[in-house]
Amino acid sequence: MTDVTTTMSTCFAAPDDAGRIHRIVEAAYRAKGEGAGWTTESGLLDGQRTDLEEIGDLIDQRDGGLLTLREGSRIVATCQVERRPDHAYFGMFAVDPAAQAHGLGKHLLSEACRVAREDWGLAEMRLTVIAARTDLIAWYERRGFRPTGATSPFPYGDERFGIPRVEGLHFVEFSMGL
User: Where do the N-acetyltransferase domain residues begin and end (predicted)?
Assistant: First the structure.
């Protein structure tokens, strides 16, 4: 099998990428039925995952941004990478559901780690995941992330991040050395 990532490129998003990024994030996190990939949270949350304002803010972020994986000019995956004082933060990770299961997510995560290590000189990457997302947690653990023991509450009542369908949602933090 050919490695499809050899024809891909990565770069940080520009403001005119916001609409495409928004569509990928919503499809990856909130799609239902046939169009849903394995990363959907639709069993846990309804509503939106993000909005164009947040996407724009992340694109304009001074210490990072939204890293994109592209096939030609078409964005197929994205993630937030943010430089913090003692680590990098990895978030809003989304692969177009139509392109999942081809190693694109693994490739983009690897590139985000490379940016944090080589461009920013950081030695650690952290992320948070909804604790109920055991399949996603297992995916991160296979790539070297380990739980830190830190947790944080889900923002119940703030519909910008979704409308919970279940009680008891919270985030767990993971870390990986770079």
Answer: 8-178
Structural domain contains residue 173: no
Please tell me the total count of domains within the chain: 1
CATH of the domain at 95: 3.40.630.30
Q: Output b/e per residue, 43-63; b: 16+ Cβ within 10 A.
A: ebbeebbbeeebbbebbeeee
pLDDT digits (tens, 9 = 90+) for 49-107: 999 999 999 999 999 999 999 999 999 999 999 999 999 999 999 999 888 888 999 99
Show the domain range for 103: 4-126
Spacing of C-alpha 111 from chain mean position: 13
pTM here is 0.91
